[in-house]
Prior knowledge:
This protein is mainly beta. It contains 1 helix and 4 strands.
Amino acid sequence: xxxxxxxxxxxxxxxxxxxxxxxxxxxxxxxxxxxxxxxxxxxxxxxxxxxxxxxxxxxxxxxxxxxxxxxxxxxxxxxxxxxxxxxxxxxxxxxxxxxx
Length: 100
C-alpha cells in the first residue's frame, strides 16, 4: 500500500510494507501483499483520503518510546543510486516487520 504524502503532481509517497494491527484486522500483515489482503485494500481505495471517517491512518492513543532502524530498501537493485540509501524504516524488534 502506498500512501501519498503530498499534493497532486508532487512525487512523494511511503510504501507501507507491514502493520501491527490494533483492532479489527484478521490475518497476517507482514508484507505488502498480506497487509492489503488482511485489510481488504485494493484499487477501490486509489485516491482515498486517509483523514476520512471510513478508512484512515491514526496515531496510537498512547505513544511509547521507539527505536527506529534504518536499512536499505529490499528488492530494488534496479533503482540505481536509490537502491543503497537507508530508506527503509521500522521499529526495532517489532514482530510485525516484514522480512528480510
